[in-house]
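In this supplementary section we document a worked example of the pipeline. Step one takes a protein sequence of length 344 as its only input; no multiple sequence alignment statistics are reported here. Step two produces a three-dimensional model, which step three serialises into structure tokens for compact storage. The input and output of this example are shown verbatim.
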Amino acid sequence: MSAKTHEVLVSPHPETIVGPIHEYTEEQAAKIKDLREYAHSLLLPPTDPYHPWELRWLNKPDTMTRYSRASKWNYADAQKRIKATMEWRREFKPDLIPPEEVRIESETGKIIINGFDRDGRPIIYMRPGRENTETGPRQLRHLVWCLERAKDLMPPGQESLVIIVDYKSTTLRTNPSISVARKVLTILQQHYVETLGRALVVNLPILLSFFYKGISPFLDPVTRDKMRFNPDLLELIPPSHLDADFGGDFNYEFEPTSYWDQIVAACGIAADGTRVEKTKDESKVEAGALKETSEENADSDDTTPSPTISSLETVLEEKLAGVSISNKNVDVDAAPQPALVTVS
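The serialised model returned by step three reads:
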């Protein structure tokens, strides 16, 4: 086992091959394009302060594809789903939560983001036994903040994450109530569709098995299928990225200040919840990327304007550009491909 470290792993192992690979038929690509046009028709007016952030979310490469897959390619259902999420995001503003608002929730390490699985999915560790605050809205906002940061850390082409729930030292007092769990499930299943890659539960005592029986009726069948109890984590996560508590070689020692500072810096989050300002050189790189996106949109007859705020890209994306990670993500606006869908 390696020596103890406070370093947070914010990029996958260099030899990681990002998966799963999603390829779309001509018909599916057309539905994705139609959904994009529909969602942009719902955009807030440019005068609304949240407009740039809503546009940023809509223009992410995985937004339309996730909602299309989640609806099982039923266009009317996809419209309903994405409209509901847009309304929720306008109220909750998950991409603008100031770090200091939720920082106290991270002080015991009950939810931390650290490492990646073999497919390049960011890992969120949840340890209910380390609960340190009373049940309230801030707990939920902290969880959403963590989901947003995990998405920031996803390598290009990756659309999902891994959640490991460790029940070691968890008691009836520290375990979340079924009502809180239902709220969490609602957000995950309705507003972060196709984002959960795996949910791995370890060290679950018999005393708390009733908890999963209680929330089972509220689990979407797809979500339920992604859950595993006491799996061999080394089959799913490389030893260098698996916490030593679970048999890995990554001997991470949680320290609240260094952990928080590393996550905030890696994701480029400013004090007000926006993104850090770019240097002149970074702005040039971003301008080039936005120009390329505009050209792609023009080729696909998508006339939606690209975001103009200077902080659309994160510090992490620049770092990932230098990491050698194989990526077979497909551009859904490119020429139609043969019918083939591969989903893990």
